[in-house]
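Hey, can you fold this?
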Amino acid sequence: MSRLFQEIAKAAAGGWAVRVTVIRAEGSAPRGPGAGMTVTATGLDGTVGGGALEFDAIAEARKIGAAGEGAWPRAVRTYPLGPRLGQCCGGSVRLLFERYAGTDALALDDASGQDDLDGGLIVRPLDGGTPPIILRDRKQIGRDWPLSLSRAVKDMLSGARRREAALVPGGKGRPDWFVEPLAPGAIPLYLYGAGHVGRAIVAVMRGLPFRIIWVDTAAERFPDDVPEDVTRLVAAQPETVAAGAPAGAFHAVMTYSHPLDLSICHAVLARGVFGYLGLIGSATKKTRFVRRLSELGIADATIARMTCPIGIAGIAGKEPAVIAVGFVAQILQIAAARDSTCTARKNSL
């Protein structure tokens, strides 16, 4: 299921919702392409940058939502971030407004499949009149699509191009198209342990570019109010979950048991295709784990990729909320460094 369309459908249950998305940003803009918010007659979820820009965009979205004209109405507005908006950013932002009735979003959610992590794309022309297309396979590419769009989509689906929000020119006399991932930029984060620190981490991660898979050995170990965007996974042997995680996933290990922590760390390190492995604990715990992992046959260079203690340096507090903030800051730094490396490699090709 697509979380994006689930959120839109929930917002549109009262009649309509307008999704506002940044499709182009130039100069010093507050948010980049793909950032979005969902606006209803009385509510708002998300942000396109705040300030006067967002104030104007909300008003425009409600105007479009109340009008309800035509099938799949869309509109594009360009906002210079200058004196008219009372902002001194100096850039400009182009926004796409899309009106959804409740049934529209539900139908798209059904069409999006069972999981939004498998690389699907949302594709649509800017001129409206047709529903967004949920694209998962090159066979779905339309024969009458602009060549530039077909190429962009093929490259994203094949992995030759990063799957990210993109405004694609339609060519002379034809509308431009907007493409975005069904699950934009979400790094899988496997969080092992539903104790105090695990709960504190979940509490501070709303809105961040991670998809949390929260793992523990028994259902009763989880709180009653697990957020909707967090996947709760009960596993008698969490190390089997770790061994089957997708390549590049982040792992944070903080269970109630040191032997269980060791088994999970061993599974992650033995496979070796992770983006981050963090183990909660002291320097003494790390020394013991390094020795045991080495005895289990893990190479020293691989063990060195394990982070313990977790969190950025300079924060000494041991309260769960303090540990959580330090940890989240650390994985955001690592994710940003990984993105920079990917961009550098792409530019060198």
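Oh, and this one too while you're at it.
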Amino acid sequence: MELSDVHLDYPVRGGGLLRRGERVRALVGADLTIAPGETVGVVGESGCGKSTLARVLVGIARPTSGTVSHRGRELWAMPPAERRAAIGAGVGMVFQDPATALNRRLTVHRLLRDPLDVHRRGTPAERDARVRELLGLVGLPAHAADALPGQLSGGQRQRVAIARALALEPALLVADEPTSALDVSVRAQILNLLLDLRARLGLAMVFVSHDIQTVRRMSDRVITMYLGRIVEESPAARVTGQARHPYTRALFSATPGLLDPIEPIPLTGALPSATRPPSGCPFRTRCWKADGRCAESMPDFRDADGETPGGHRFRCHHPVAAEETTHQLVAQATEAKERSA
């Protein structure tokens, strides 16, 4: 799957006459390539465009401009029936809350068989056999097929949702906050299940989450989003201490640690409006490194020193130096905040 210069705007709902005609810039110039078998993690604050990116990848949301390519073909240039077949069979999605993602009036058997019926996979007997196979794949007993979603626990419902997403043997699984609606005790089980399925089935995966340390654990590569833009792309092993974009470093510094607890890098102000983003780099209004140049233009992607092109890249006029520690960045940001007070 590949995104090239994807933009997606939504009209503002409500707000009266003063906001009529305004649009939310949910995605701005998104470029992303997902290789077979690769897991890409997506991090960022609420409202940064993570879920919108996921919806574009599975064909739920159509970009305002730009291209979405599936196996080398432009998705939205396909006839509707061909597009539904390509996405339905090639990409699966696990939504945030299984309680709302699953039809509570249908049995688990019906929920898992529906994709097979719609896409006419095999004979009726083969479809029933596939349902039993899917239940075993996600660790549910055979008798769960007769249950309604309301009769299952939250973790069991999410296992059903994962099984449904895998029913047509997709090459790519998009998981949008798959554990956020679950109890803490169940989250690890679902994450381990996803890791196991990735290894057994050779799945590519896009993993969206607010849990930054979980994203690092699950992913091969991590992208950081801010106000609809991808601002950094980094190998997962480097994202905590060697990220180059100030926002990525601030985001990961806010994650508590047991062995080395640290004060988060302080940022000034709240996330700007997605309808009226700042000029130039949108992070400049909260960044301790920002200057006049940042207000003039959004920087292009540049590769980190010593990295192969595309391996680690970021968009920043004044990136964090590779050798700078989080302790040093906290001191810099605190000093800048005091100067501006």
